[in-house]
Amino acid sequence: MWHFFNPVQIDAGPGAFDGLPELVGNRRAILIAFPEARELGLCDRVQALLGEQLLAIETDIQPNPDVSWLSPLYERLWRDHPDAECIIALGGGSVIDCAKAMLTSTPSGTFAELLDCLSGKASLSQPPGRVRSLIAVPTTAGTGSEVTPWATIWDKGQGRKYSLHLPWTWPQAAIIDPALMCSLPAAATLASGLDALSHALESLWNINRNPVSASLAVSAARQIIRHLPLLMQDLSSLELRAELAVAAAMAGLAFSNTKTALAHSLSYDLTLEQGLPHGIACSFSLPHVMQMALGQDAQLDQLLLSIFEVQDSAQAVAALSQFLDQLGVSTDPAAYGVSPEQWQQRIAQALQGPRGRNFIGAHAMDAVQV
User: Fold this and answer.
1) What is the rounded distance in angstroms from the CA atom of residue 200 to the CA atom of residue 203?
2) What are the CA-CA distances from residue 67 to residues 8, 276, 294, 312 (Å)?
3) pLDDT for 211-229, tens place per residue?
4) What is the pTM (predicted TM-score) of this model?
5) Which has the closest alpha carbon to 13: 184, 195, 243?
6) Which class for 341: exposed (0-12), middle (13-18), buried (19 or more C-beta within 10 A)?
7) Among the listed ranges 118-132, 147-161, 302-316, 347-361, which one has the minimum average pLDDT value?
8) Where is the Alcohol dehydrogenase iron-type/glycerol dehydrogenase GldA domain (predicted)?
9) Do residues 135 and 89 lie in contact, with contact meaning Cβ atoms separated by under 8 Å?
C-alpha cells in the first residue's frame, strides 16, 4: 500500500505573482523577504498589491536561519503584530524556512518554547497557540520548501540543527513565477538547481518512494539535467528559468511525501562546519550515494538508468559525475576538507540519522563501501 498527500495550491507561470491579492483575500499580512527585495522593487510591489493589509515588511533575513536572530524576530512579530493572519514568504529556502518558524505562537510568546517542542522536550500534537497561514513565493528554483511542511533551523552556537515539521506548517499556497528568479546570480542559481536535483534523486533511493513521487522525481531530474547547464550559460532566459522552476516544484512535491535521504544527512555537518551552501553540500555526494543505491532494488535501477538514458550502473554514475564536473562541482570529499577515512566515518554515521535511515540501502548495510 502507498499514499500521496500534498495540500499546497500551486499557481505558476510568468505573471503568477500578480494573483497574490486573491490568495491573501481580506486577511492582514506580514511580508518576509530576502535583503535585496527592497532595491529590486519587490517590497514596493507587494505594498502596492496589498495596500493597508500589509502590516509589516521584514528583509533582514540571513542564509541558514539561526536561533540567534530567529528568536528576537519571532518574539517581535508576535508582540507587535498579533492581528496578522497571514505571512508571505518572498525569497529562497532560508526565507521560507524563516517564515515557517513564525507561523505558530506559543503561550509564553517566546521562541525558546517552540524550540523545546522541536527538541523533544515538549509535545506539539496540536498548535500551542494561534497559527498563521503561509503563502510561499520562491525566488529560487530549488528549495522545494514552498510545497513542503519542513524547515531547517540552525543553532550554530550549539553545533546542531532542528527540523521543523508540524501538521500546520504546510504552505496554504505557492506562487511560482519564473520572472521573480531572473535576477538570481550564478552561484545561487547553481546551488538551488543542484538542491532540486538532490531532492529528486533522494526521493527515488528512498524507502518511502511511491509511484506518484517516483514519476515526479524522474521528470524533475531529467529537466534539471537537461536545462541547468543551459541556464548557467544564459541566466537572463525566462524560458529556462521557467523550466527549472517547474522541475524544482516537481522535486519538492516528490520529497514532500518521501523526505530526503543519505546525501542530505551527509550535508548538514558540512554546512555547519564550513558554511558550504546547502545545494552544493547535498549534491556533491550524489554519485557516491547513487553507487551505493544501485543494485538494491531492480525498479529503482531502471528509474535511475532512464534519467541518464544509459544501459548500466557504471554509466549512470559516470554521467552524474560528469554533469557535476561540467558545472564546476567537485565530487571528491577531499575538496571539502574531508579525508577518505573521515568520509567513510561520516557515511556510517549519516546512515544512522533520521534522513540516512530513509536511504533504501541503509537497513541492509552493516559495512559501507563506496
Assistant:
1) 5
2) 27, 19, 39, 46
3) 999 999 999 999 999 999 9
4) 0.94
5) 243
6) exposed
7) 118-132
8) 8-178
9) yes
The model's confidence at residue 279, banded by pLDDT at 50, 70 and 90, is very high
Which grid cell is 307?
A: 534519467
Question: Is residue 295 left, alpha or beta, with left meaning phi > 0 and alpha meaning psi from -120 to 50?
Answer: left
Q: For residues 203 and 180, what is the distance between their CA atoms, to the nearest angstrom?
A: 27
- Per-chain mean pLDDT for the chain: 94
Q: What are 219's three cell numbers?
A: 521528470
Find the range with the poorest average confidence among 96-110, 152-166, 186-200: 152-166
C-alpha cell at 341: 577515512
- Domains of the chain with bracketed CATH: 9-179 (3.40.50.1970), 185-363 (1.20.1090.10)
Report d(CA 194, CA 329) in Å as an integer. 10
Per-residue b or e along 309-340, where b marks 16 or more CB atoms closer than 10 Å to that residue's CB = ebeebeebbebbbebbeeeebebebeebebee
Q: Are 190 and 279 in contact (CB under 8 A)?
A: yes
C-alpha cell at 140: 529560487
Q: How many CB atoms lie within 10 A of CB 26?
A: 7
Smallest CA-to-CA distance from 329 within 229, 206, 181, 209 is with: 229
Whole-number Å distance between alpha carbons of 68 and 86:
24
Q: What does the pLDDT average to over 240-253?
A: 98
Given a contact cutoff of 8 angstroms between Cβ atoms, the answer to whether 124 and 137 are in contact is no
CA distance 216 to 249: 9
The β-bridge partners of 12 are 176
pLDDT of residue 167: 86
Q: Round to whole Å and give the CA distance between 9 and 234.
A: 30
